[in-house]
Amino acid sequence: MFQVILSTQWKWARLPLLLATITAFTIPVLSVQGVGGNQIQGVLAFRVLAAMENWAVWYPLLAAAIGLLLAVTAWGPDHRQGHTYALSLPLPRWQYAMLRLGAGFVLLAAPAIGIALGSVLASATATVPVGLTAYPVALTIRFTLAAILAFTIFFAIAGGSTRTAGYVLAAMAALLVGHWLLDVATIPIDVVGPLLERLYDFRGPLGIFGGRWMLIDV
Amino acid sequence: MRRLTLGTLALTAAGVLLPRTVQAQTVEELRARVVQFEQQWNEANELARRVDAALLPKLHVDTMAIGPIVLVAIGDDLTLIRDAADGALQRLSDHLGSDIDLLQGVEIYALAREHTVGLGLTSGMEQSRSFILFEETKAADLAGSLVHTALEALDLTQDRGFRDWLTVRTLTLLSAVDFVRAYESLATSPFEASSKCLLGELGGCRLALGLTETSEPLLTWYSEADRRTLVENSGRPLERFFPNMATMYDRCVEGDDESCSTFMKDQSIQPPLPPNVRVTLVQHALVVGGDGAYGRLYRARGTMEERLTAAARVPGDSLIASWRAVLVDSAGHPTAVSWPLGLAAVFWAMAFSAMALRSTRWR
Amino acid sequence: MSDAIKTQGMWYRAGPEFELHDVSMSVPTGSVYGFLGPNGAGKTTTIRLLLGLHRADRGNISLLDRDVPKEMPDILQRTAYVPETPHLYPSLTVAEAVRYHGAFYKAWDESWTDELFDRFSLPPDQRISKLSKGESGKLLMLLALAQRPELLVLDEPTEGLDPIVRRDILGTLLDYVSEQGATVLISSHLVHELERICDWVGLMDQGRLIVEMPMQQFKNGIKRLRIIDPPGTYDNTPFEVLAREPVNGGVPGEMILVQGWSADMAEYFSGVGASLHEVVDLDLEDGFVEMLRAYRAG
Questions:
Q1: Nearest CA in chain C to A95
Q2: Which domain range does residue A93 map to?
Q3: Neighbours of chain C (3+ CB pairs under 8 A)
């Protein structure tokens, strides 16, 4: 059962997933291009860190995009025909969702391997200045965890009914409208700020997306 | 009280006036601005007097002690300030130990209005030094602000040696992040002395920190390549307005060290490592020195290294070597995924997966 | 004989303008049950309720003696469903779709799958989105039959197919049913087609199940009678009068449509001063039309 579920999900996601995997491999490799050579140690360290910072934003974005891609491709074909086929198969709904979720986790291995190989290659070929360290493993773990988390978030939303998706959107809209109204009424209560703070707190659901995404760092 | 209100209004007025003043082109216009500013200052004074007269009878005023500091709290609700004062005393005691007595005679004014708490400071040396507005709603945050304000009273820039070397005004409590930033500055400093320091050469550290006494800092602290870097970093002057400087810049970049020195001769030369690194050395000396270190630092005279070793009560080499080790250790591994962060991510992934498994069959 | 499908007092509001009213239906085990009704009568909605694709607002549903929706996985393991519009993933090839579908069923019959493949001449490497309507219908029937179901629920399975494909599909279906003794619920517009294969019939209109009976009884029991000197009202009849209408072309008397007719009931008319002149047999389609007309006339 899992095998056929995996094969359908692979078929639906393979092209964008391949692209995402290549991108995951390429980002760390590109990030170390153009830094190095016969530069003074401090200058080199500064340039390396600056280059890493420039590229850092792409890792969490890619992780989120991969999560979204896999969630959408996992549920998309079922959504398009109102889940009739999935619901007429002889297994409980939770089991079906679990198989699709598991298949998504397996497919996530491709970009994770991509970033691992890219990071290792980039670290091996780059000149890492004294005082700085290359973090290919840490970056791969961070990226994989972020991609898994993004996938589960989008998977949970996409697997819900239209009503559930509506509730999620309505809650977000209510929050933004509430924030705007408070702003207009000059009531000094910040709703969005503390919420974002909690979301990105290290214990929060988006904590893994914060922090430093540097292949080479102090 | 009046001073506090005045200070606020003055700051506001200055903020309003500054952009216009900058735009003024002629001396006449500048004079007119000065007259206007004086007029507004007087108006602000008068307004402050009226506001004080109207507000004061309605507000609670309480005098508290934070160790030797007198805290005058004014406001409609003083609970937050009282809570914060307790926290501030604890932090100051931890930071200063018995040197907390150095804060004898310091008075802090705290004005609480709605969501805003203003803090003002007076000390025996100078009246009405500053007034800062904080939007604090938590006692812990306000305690931090009180500590910062109190430490301003120990303004080390009163001392010329410190002013020239440290360039920061308050030796406030440094956090782990400050040490990470300092390490980054050390690791990424483009100057030779800094690189040597990073690699463990104490002489390099002394040069990079500006601890080596010299009348020619540009030639002592910086190598020939460094000087070229300094010039390059300052950018090529516009040839139309500064033809000589532009020529000197070009020569320097081409490798003429004398041109580099001439180019830099009128500029203030700071040590290769920036103030945020130097301040960690002071903090380290205070930590190593333990109780009474603040007072020793405050009272000691001589070169910067002598003052720091007096505070730390260890030889200069030991102090610098241990500071370097602390800095290198504090770099940590910020990119690495900590256990709590990793576990939190796994927990949330499991939580969202559980939500996904509850996907309904009713559509 | 137990019922493969049984609903009691099933209500379902599908929107502001449509509702299923108190549907109680029984599909005997081993029967081929024709589910008739005009467009929008509620046949597909009923089928979706039976398969747990919608949740009934009220009432009880059981399939193969199992409760819907509580025991859906077990029910669906023994039930095949062919929906009105193909529900397979269009990006899969025929072979992939068969492999995918087969993985979920315990009783999946590989050798029969191969046999059906040959019989229906399906192109294994063709994507489902590229299949013709006939090929698509055949594939759905193949998937339904290869899982060796005890119950087949077929919603307009031959809609839009040419007669040859229809015959192929229905022939294979009947072979299976006669061999396995499976139960079939089949909805269709093609009344003549159902007349050939069904032994039970249910008629639905405007969200209500109007009638449900054995096919033979339906065909024999509904007659059109020409009556001379008809009474003002038909009271205490041994049959049910569904409709009355004048005879066209100046012919005397009136035509009445009756249900539950048998020849020995002719005496009734002499008892009320009328006489029976003609008994007209109706085929399923005529019966279906007349039944609907009578129902709508109240």
A1: C73
A2: 2-161+213-217
A3: A, B
Helix (H, G, I), strand (E, B) or coil at C53: coil
Q: Is the CATH number of domain B59-154 3.40.50?
A: no
Q: State how far the Cα of A50 lies from the Cα of A58, in Å rounded to an integer.
A: 14
Asked if B362 is an interface residue toward chain C (Cβ–Cβ < 8 A), one would say: yes
Give the rounded distance of the alpha carbon of B210 from its chain centre. 19
ipTM score for this prediction: 0.89
Q: Is A20 contained in some domain?
A: yes
- A190 belongs to a structural domain: no
Are the Cβ atoms of A42 and B359 closer than 8 angstroms?
A: no
Q: Phi/psi at A36 (nearest 5 deg)?
A: 130, -155
Up-side HSE of residue B138: CA atoms within 13 Å toward CB? 3
* Residue A31, domain member (yes or no): yes
Enumerate the residues of chain A whose CB falls inside 8 A of the CB of residue C98: none
Question: What is the tally of structural domains in chain C?
Answer: 2
Is C14 in the B-facing interface, judged by CB distances under 8 Å? Answer: no
Report if residue C260 sits inside a domain: yes
Question: Cβ of C74 and A7 within 8 Å?
Answer: no
Given a cut of 50, whether residue A188 has pLDDT beyond it is: yes
Question: How many distinct structural domains can be found in chain A?
Answer: 1
* Chain A closest-CA separation from residue C139 CA (Å): 14
CB contact under 8 A, B361 and C69: yes
Same-domain check for residues C234 and C189? no
CATH number at C156 reads: 3.40.50.300
Structure letter (DSSP) for residue C84: S
- Distance, in angstroms, between B356 CA and closest chain C CA? 19
Long-range own/partner contacts, residues B73-80 (CB < 8 A, 24 or more apart): B73/B110, B73/B112, B74/B1, B74/B109, B74/B110, B74/B111, B74/B112, B75/B110, B75/B111, B75/B112, B75/B113, B75/B117, B76/B112, B76/B113, B77/B112, B78/B112, B80/B112, B80/B117, B80/B136, B80/B137, B80/B139, B80/B142
CA distance A110 to chain C (A): 22
Q: Work out the minimum CA distance from C261 to partner chain A, whole angstroms.
A: 42
Note if the pTM is more than 0.80.
no
pLDDT of residue B126 exceeding 50, the answer is: no
**Average pLDDT over every residue of B313-342:** 87
d(CA B256, CA B23): 40
| Average confidence (pLDDT) per 10 residues, chain C, 298 residues | 88 88 92 90 92 91 92 94 91 94 93 89 91 89 93 88 84 89 89 85 90 84 87 87 80 84 87 88 81 76
Domain region containing C275: 223-281
Per-residue tokens: C286: 């005529």
Whether C294 maps to a domain, the answer reads no
Q: Is B344 on the interface with A (CB under 8 A)?
A: yes
Sign of the CA dihedral with B134 first, then B137, B141, and B144 last: positive
Residue B76 pLDDT > 80: no
**Does residue B333 sit at the C interface (CB-CB below 8 Å)?**
no
Where does CATH 3.30.160 sit in chain B?
Answer: 59-154
Contact list, C90 vs chain A (CB under 8 Å): 77
In this prediction, residues B37-45 reach a mean pLDDT of 84
Is the pLDDT assigned to residue B6 strictly greater than 50?
A: no
- Best probe of the A interface among B188, B329, B333, B341, by most A CBs < 10 A, is B188
Contact assignment for C53 to A92 by CB distance below 8 Å: no
More confident residue, A109 or A180: A109
- Asked if A89's CB is within 8 angstroms of C87's CB, the reply is no
Kindly list the residues from chain A whose CB atom is less than 8 angstroms away from the CB atom of residue C51. Answer: 87-88
| Structural domain includes residue A94 | yes
Please, are residues A63 and A150 in contact by the beta-carbon 8 Å criterion? Answer: yes
